[in-house]
From TrEMBL:
Family: Belongs to the oxygen-dependent FAD-linked oxidoreductase family.
One MF term in the entry's GO annotations: FAD binding
Name assigned to this protein: FAD-binding domain-containing protein
Source lineage: Eukaryota, Fungi, Dikarya, Ascomycota, Pezizomycotina
Organism per entry: Penicillium malachiteum
Requisite cofactors: FAD
Keywords: FAD, Flavoprotein, Oxidoreductase
Pfam families given in the database record: BBE, FAD_binding_4
């Protein structure tokens, strides 16, 4: 087990261990007492036991993609899982066992090429499974296939006292319940996920896109809202406001990604959008051959490395005038690399969820991804996000853990009963607050956890 101590290591070595794998280059001023680079499951057990001996907290880094860098905590031992990558596939039973630092692209590269299978992981290719699944997992075609965490059939974890145990629907059921939606407040360290897989629709993976001038914002948005509830159940629908590369004008981009068994099925699924789309698109394509790998490339381009990020989000109320609520966010982006997203969640949002911690959703998921390069732009870009969210949040049911920063805004992340049950489970399994948990302002949440309440109502 490699341990890099802050007090005794060279500064460059320590800094690389502390933040070298943090995706967001708006790096935090928080300093773990040590970083453990785990390479095997036993290293994780030993790292937790080391934290017990040192009477300090434990933080965990899977992919390093948390916008708020939740893994970097004062007075902690940071267990970095970047070198701990293992995958076992039972193709016959469509089950994979994967370690938390495996990314969606790494996992699906093996599943697709060797087994003709896939897992609906994160859209950004370098997002690790660990944080993604613990916070729920808004993965590929979530609006129809459901949350990725619903496909977690079991997991292996190290408890706050250093014991290795298995959790599923019959063993350690309360931890299994919490693992599907607790986010960074999960009171144990996951060493392996057991995942239910899907067939990969290689022949029928297609997309349609319609790019409109921002002057057609209202008309195009009203159209997509009208067709979404009854649209094909293998089609993901997203709306993005962004500056296309080389353009001085923002565009309103509507994307359909369909995953069918045949090209004919894909064309039939996408045809209703093609036949009802508003005139006036500056660019469009219909039922173009596509692939998961190509989609990963586009996501990677939209979320470039070595940039500074500020993300925020909200589930917009089902009865809201969504285009009006989101107009400022979609039409006043503060930087040419920033983008705003609306993601269709209906019909998943209308069904009864399994018994699990994740419980917050609506028909309309909205997120801001503010991207810039220079530190001098920090104040301006963050202020824009904060001001936009002040107006949007009063029309929201709550927020998604994955695109949130608990240090800057309070809102709801779970149904009230689920939040209370989750915090009780955290205190049961980690009464001393060994696992760092939720990074709120001042990192004070401890065993209390989050308040799970809208800020404007407190």
């Amino acid at each position: 087990m490699e341990v890099i101590w802050k007090a005794t290591s060279q500064n460059a070595v320590y800094e690389e261990a502390r933040v070298g794998r943090v995706f967001n280059h708006r790096r935090p001023s928080r300093f773990p007492m040590a970083v453990v680079n785990a390479a095997k499951e036993a290293d994780i057990v030993d790292a937790v036991k080391l934290a017990v001996e040192q009477k300090c907290r434990v933080a965990v880094r899977s992919g390093g993609h948390s916008w708020a860098a939740w893994s970097v905590r004062d007075n902690s031992i940071l267990i970095d899982l970047g070198n701990y990558k293992q995958l076992e596939v039972d193709a016959e039973n469509m089950i994979a066992k994967a370690t938390p630092s495996m990314t969606g692209r790494e996992l699906n590269s093996v599943l697709i090429k060797e087994h003709g299978l896939m897992f609906p992981g994160g859209h950004c290719p370098d997002v690790g499974l660990g944080g993604f699944l613990l916070q729920g997992g808004m993965g590929w075609n979530c609006r129809n296939w459901g949350w990725a965490c619903e496909r977690v059939v079991g997991l292996d974890v190290v408890t706050a006292e250093g014991e290795l145990i298995h959790c599923n629907s019959t063993q350690n059921r309360d931890l299994y319940w919490a693992a599907r939606g607790a986010g960074p407040g999960f009171p144990a360290v996951v060493t392996r996920f057991h995942l239910s897989l899907l067939p990969y629709p290689k022949k029928g993976f297609r997309s349609s896109g319609y790019i409109y001038p921002m002057s057609m914002y209202r008309k195009a948005f009203d159209w997509i809202l009208s067709i979404t509830p009854s649209f094909d159940n293998d089609t993901e629908i997203a709306v993005i406001s962004h500056y296309p590369e080389g353009s001085d004008e923002m565009r309103f981009f509507i994307l359909f990604v369909v995953m069918k068994n045949t090209p004919e099925e894909a064309e039939a699924a996408l045809r209703p959008a093609q036949e009802t789309r508003p005139d006036g698109a500056v660019e469009e394509w219909f039922c173009k051959e596509d692939s998961l790998d190509e989609q990963y490339d586009k996501q990677e381009h939209a979320n470039p490395e070595k940039h500074r990020y500020c993300a925020e989000n909200a589930y917009i109320n089902n009865d809201a005038d969504v285009p009006a609520v989101l107009e400022e966010a979609f039409t006043t982006l503060p930087h040419r690399k920033a983008f705003a997203l609306w993601y269709a969640m209906n019909p998943c949002s209308r069904r009864r969820l399994p018994d699990m911690a994740l419980s917050m959703q609506s028909d309309h998921y909205f997120a801001l991804y503010t991207v810039w390069e220079d530190e001098s732009d920090d104040v301006r870009c963050q202020a824009w996000v904060k001001n936009v969210m002040k107006r949007v949040e009063r029309h929201s049911a709550g927020a998604y853990l994955g695109d949130s920063d608990f240090q800057t805004r309070k809102t709801k992340y779970w149904a009230d009963d689920n939040a209370k049950r989750l915090m009780d489970i955290r205190r049961k399994w980690d009464p001393k607050g060994r696992i760092c948990g939720y990074l709120d302002q001042g990192d004070q949440s401890g065993t209390t956890g989050l308040t799970n309440a809208h800020e404007w109502k407190l």
